[in-house]
# Entry
Amino acid sequence: MKKNKILSIAIAVTAILAAAVLGIRIGFFRETFTPAETRKQAAISQSCAAVDEFFRAFSAGDAQTVEALTENYSIAAGMYTGELGELARSSFSYQILSSQVIKNEGVANTVSVTWLDAAALTEGMEEEIQQILNQELEEAASSAEIYDQELNFRQDVLDRVFAQVLAGRMENAEAYLRTDTVVIQTTMDTPPKLILSEALCNILANGRTDESK
# Structure
């Protein structure tokens, strides 16, 4: 009888311990196991957030943040400033069309980007500006109206003529808007970083990286 009682107690203790261990394991399993689809959606969400942050920084002219968010990009040519820079930024827009997880590589986002081809907009401006300067020089009562003491074109004259030519072209700025679809890949880092394609780098430079081709 005593043995049976001891055996019953032992079984009960064992059952309690087993239940405790099982409960811990189940809890641990629930906390650590994440379904594949949930992990996939989390990766896509983080990737889209990184793309959003990158383009917000780019639109704001924040070169430091733009470079910090990428693995392979630097704004070597610099961002356009002044009226042309404002036009380029105000014309810029994007839309993430789809995102796909690439196993062991990260996420690939298909993005539609509308941008200002400033390289095309400013093409031939130097010749046009030179023609205006030559005409003004012919019509000037004195060369001092056009040249400085070192016989270079006065900076205020250059600025005025440049603004004049640019304003004329900006009236038809819509003709220089482009819409392209590009793929932007992000790494598996936390937070992820962008790996930019040559096509997107050209867009961010407003078409200037094609000038050397």
Summary: The helical segments are 2-32, 36-59, 63-68, 82-91, 118-121, 125-139, 155-170, 198-204. The mean pLDDT is 81.
